[in-house]
Amino acid sequence: QLQLVESGGGLVQPGGSLRLSCAVSGFTLDYYAIGWFRQVPGKEREGVSCISGSGRTTYYTSSVEGRFTISRDNQNTVYLQMNSLKPEDTAVYYCARDRNAYCSGIRGVDYWGNGALVTVSS
Q: Which regions of the chain does DSSP assign to beta strands (E)?
């Protein structure tokens, strides 16, 4: 059964760090890019970061560049390390499978996880 399951969300103070995990099953990471997206109520879901199926190419939206790092292990998990968190990073974070091995944005997504809430507040 194809699944993506996020974990690692929670409450953190501004300037703090969190690491999100996306455990996948039912497919092999080597053949699909995985993206992280986030959404706040009343706004469209936006792309945050993406890693290609080969793991050699990564992308970041400008607002998280230098603070967030996407990575993957050799098995079935993709990570999003989030440092220097800001209140504006508060959102539900989703990992998603791209139907392509390269990152093609939200239009390329064919499967979504259920999301993990990240709250940055003092």
A: 3-7, 10-12, 18-25, 34-39, 46-51, 58-60, 68-72, 77-82, 91-98, 109-112, 116-120
pLDDT at res. 81: 98
Structure tokens at 56: 């050699």
CA distances from 96 to 13, 16, 99, 105 (A): 26, 25, 10, 10
β-strands 18-25, 46-51: how paired? unpaired
CA neighbor of 105 nearest in space, from 48, 30, 28:
48
CA-wise closest residue to 116 among 76, 72, 71, 80: 80
Task: Give me the residue label for tokens 């469209």.
Answer: 44
Tally of CB atoms within 10 A around 52 = 20
Nearest-5° Cα angle at 55, 118 to 27: 80
pLDDT < 70 stretches in the chain: none
